Amino acid sequence: MAVVYTVNQMCKIRPMRLFHITPNENAEAILKDGFRDGKGHYLTDQEWTGVWVSTEPFDGFDASTNTLFAIEIPEDAISEFEWVQPGMRLREFLAPAALINSYGPQVVTDNWDDDEIVPRPDPGAFMGDFDMEEFLWMDKPADWMDK
Asked: pTM for the whole thing?
């Protein structure tokens, strides 16, 4: 018996490419230890925790002072954390760091317009002698790509 999915179901299964921008001085800690939950009121009366990610980097992204991380997460895994704002052309999510970290290594990128994530060509530019390629593959569980 063949399994048939609707277009809407396929979109929720296929990973979404999400982005997180952070000042360069925070990038090495994210690469080493993963994302950590931040706290804030974010223009509300309630305190919220999580990591902000969006479907596009915000306008004005400056690669000389900030690092852009790309993460691929299935829509059905992150949709409950979406912050819907009328009139926004991009989608924003405030998701738990544990969820974001569970979807493999974060990739530093400068290219977000193509169909694939293109890592920044010189990851050592802001991290001294840190070898990002070596880091990305060390200490990962054998099945981390199967999630």
From this structure: 0.66
